[in-house]
Amino acid sequence: MNNKKEANRYDKIFKENLEAVTLSMIEKVLQIDVANYEKIPLDLQRTLERKPDQLLKITDTQGDTFLLQLEFQLVDEARMVDRMFEYKALIWRKYQLPIRQYVLFLSDTVPTMPTRIEQHGLVFFFDLVRISQIDYQLFLSSDKADEVVFAVLANFGNMEPEKAASQILDRLAQTSPTPLELNRHLQQLRILANLRKLSPFIEQIMESITNYIKEEDDYFFKKGERIGELKGEQKGRQEGKQEAILKFLKDGILTTKQLASYFDVTEEFVEDLRKNLDQ
Questions:
Q1: What is residue 212's predicted lDDT score, i.e. its pLDDT?
Q2: Which residue in 79, 128, 121 sits closest to 102, CA to CA?
Q3: Which of these, 124, 125, 118, 66, lies nearest to 97 by C-alpha position?
Q4: Of 20, 197, 29, which Cα lies nearest the Cα of 105?
Q5: For the segment 180-210, what is each residue's pLDDT rounded down to a tens digit?
Q6: First to last CA, the chain
Q7: To 10 degrees, what angle do helices 161-175 and 179-196 make?
Q8: Cβ neighbours for 64, distance < 8 A, ≥ 6 positions apart
Q9: Below-70 pLDDT ranges, the chain
Q10: 86: helix, coil or strand?
């Protein structure tokens, strides 16, 4: 896969999750205490190659009001400083408000892109933030799965990657409201893990889950439904659920409550399977 296609895959994930995580990114990563904010239209000028990823009017808890531009960047782009300078000039011309610009760099590599322009009559700079230097617990502790998934790009500290990946998977299971949402976030996690070269660790942990990640909606539940339909009776559907639950119990990733919810069975049913598995 070429770099452009790869970048498009990651860009799609951020667009899907951006609405849910913007405020927490501003507060946790940029450490700006937001009192209120509003979206600013992104159609600055049609001749721009692309629009800003996010432009917000922020009023912080100190009473300062400014425009905040966020760019999520995967590629170490040498001309990024030119693009940010162009954005700032157009934003300033249209809104006449103080502007703060941040590029959130997603790759695990050390970026070499210039962040400043200094010449006669001009001093310009933007802030470059490496997500790989942010404590992954900031994302892991969120109650939003859309935010939790970005923990895989952050700094694990002294935690072994395999254990950190396992924690992220468990937290995604806890915070995804439906099996369909969990399915989507697991797909995102597998793609983002490539940026951290963690795929071998996540593949090891997700080996059984992989079999249930399909394009069909709500696959966890449909696994049991489909087996049941093949057998043509309710017993088949129940056996299908039982087979799927047993596989998850062996891996020890999801809790009894989560499994009961995802497969529409009682917690007692799951616990009985667990007891049989231990015998």
A1: 42
A2: 128
A3: 66
A4: 29
A5: 788 788 888 877 887 777 767 666 665 544 5
A6: 47
A7: 160
A8: 98
A9: 1-12, 14-16, 18-20, 42-50, 199, 201-240, 251-254, 261-262, 278-279
A10: helix
Select from 173, 140, 165, 144 the least CA-distant residue to 258. Answer: 173
> For the segment 129-153, what is each residue's pLDDT rounded down to a tens digit?
999 999 999 999 999 898 999 999 9
The closest alpha carbon to 192, from 230, 162, 159, 165, belongs to 165
What is the C-alpha separation between 4 and 48, in angstroms, rounded? Answer: 19
What are the start-end ranges of the E strands in the chain? Answer: 34-39, 54-60, 65-73, 99-105, 116-119, 122-125, 127-130
The tokens describing 203, both together, are 């593949």
β-strand 127-130 against 99-105: which pairing, if any? parallel
- Alpha carbon of 27 to those of 33, 61, 117, 211: distances in Å? 6, 11, 28, 37
Q: Is the dihedral of CA 242, 243, 248, 252 positive or negative?
A: positive
> 226 Cβ partners below 8 Å, 6+ apart?
240
Q: Exposed, middle or buried: residue 95 (CB in 10 Å: 0-12, 13-18, 19+)?
A: middle
Phi, psi at 154, each rounded to 5°: -90, -175
The answer to whether 205 and 162 have CB atoms below 8 angstroms apart is yes
Half-sphere exposure of 100 (CA within 13 A, CB side): 16
